[in-house]
Structure formats: C-alpha cells, structure tokens
Amino acid sequence: MSLSRRFPVRPALLAVPMAVGLLIGAAATAHATEAEDPRASGHEGNATTCAEAGLDGAVLSQEDLTFTGGTPNVDQYLSITAAEGGTVTGIVVKGGPRYNVYQPGSNGLSGTPPWEGLRAPLNNGGNIPQISHWYLCGTGTPDTTSSTPTTIETTETTETTGSTNPSTPDRSTTSEAGGSPGTSADATTASVTSAAVVPAGEDGDLASTGFGGSGLIWLGALLVLAGTALLVLFRIRRGTT
Question: What is the pTM of this model?
Fold first, then answer.
C-alpha cells in the first residue's frame, strides 16, 4: 500500500502554508515600504539651535505662525499653514534618535507655506516616531522666551507605529503653548500642570521596538517554499499510484 493511500494529503491543506506565507510576505512588504520624507535631510542626534541644525538666522517665535499638529510626544506630523513677518530658512523636526531639517524651496518643499506632513525621521524600528520638539529658523520675530526649544516630559516608553497619513489634531493656533519655541512662560505654565518642562536637549527618545520587516519577509518566503514542496510531493505520489 502506498504512503499516499495510508496517509491521504488533501490539496486544500497544502495550500494553507502557502496562503499564510503570502499574507505574511505582503504584510512585511507593506511595512518595509515606509520611507523617509524626500523633502527633508535626516540627521542623527539632537539640535536645539539654528546653528546646530546648519541653518541661517535665529529661532522664530510661534506668534507669527499658524500651524496644526506638532504637539510634543503626541503628534507624528506638523503642518504649517502660514508664517508671517519674516523669511524662513529652515524647519527642524525632532523625534526618536534623529531629526529632520526642511529647507523651503529645496528637495521639493515649496518656498512658501503651506508646509504639510512635516515629521521626524524613522526610528530604529522603521516607524515614524512622535515629535519631541520642532522649531523654525530665519529672519523675523525671534523667540525671546527661551534659548532652546522645550518639550513635555512623559513616561511613555514605546514607539508609535508608522502612519501613512498626517494627523490633524483639533487645534490651529498662532501662539498656543505646545512645548516648542515661541511659547511664553506663562502660557506654558497654564497649559501644563502635571508634567515638568525640560530643555529639549535632555528629553528622552522614545524606545525602539527593534522590529524590522526583513524577518517577516524571510518567514513568508519559507512558508511559501514549504507549501510548494508539499504540493509537488503530493502530485508525484499521486501520479505513481
């Protein structure tokens, strides 16, 4: 009696590992397609001044800006819809272990607002981190309330996974306290009652998940290969009986 008759193998069962492998491979591919923003230049570490970011001018006050998003340790994206009273030479967006520098008129970024979907570089897990702080450099009304940007210290220890669409929080302000340059000391104290305000250079980066898409891709490929081998073996044995 042949082995195939004693232990019948159903083609439907052989298709299971192949289907699982294809699904995992598709998920890994989608994860791996998360890319850096081509409009920005990414840098390791932190920058709290225009000079550290390689930009001309001084940190500008947020009183001359209209923006949405950018809330420290909450939002992943920042959109600036208006910048009055001066010339912007660059925008710095920090999150995780790195920061992005956007320069109006360069790398596909328009020379004038709106500037939408600004974000930090990918973290070590390949995800878009929450913004820890951001600021604009240029000529105009300087930020006279603080020599460095500030962030709100939180106890969060995990990274937010990547998002493909910019968030749009329910706020649009020209002088709202958000933990970045241009925020007055009184406004910051009024809006933050339980979290300490610390210099941005001392804020803790969000923890890296250490997750990468390559492992899923290899697992999906192995499952597909195993399913294919079982299907071929089944057909060979069936043809010999």
Answer: 0.54
Please report, for residues 5, 65, 66, 100, the alpha-carbon distance to residue 81 in angstroms, rounded to integers and kept in the order given: 71, 8, 6, 19
* Least confident span in 101-115, 120-134, 137-151: 137-151
Spatial contact of 208 and 87, defined as CB atoms under 8 Å apart: no
pLDDT of residue 143: 84
- Other Cβ atoms closer than 10 A to 196: 8
Q: Which of 145, 132, 147, 137 is nearest to 70 (CA)?
A: 132
Helix %, strand %, coil % of the chain (to 5): 25, 20, 50
How far is CA 78 from each of CA 65, 81, 132, rounded to the nearest angstrom?
12, 10, 11
Instruction: Please name the residues in contact with 25: beta carbons below 8 A apart, sequence gap of 6 or more.
Output: 216, 217, 220, 221, 224
Place of tokens 């660059």: 90
Copy the structure tokens of residue 85: 């009273």
* 221 vs 81, higher pLDDT: 81
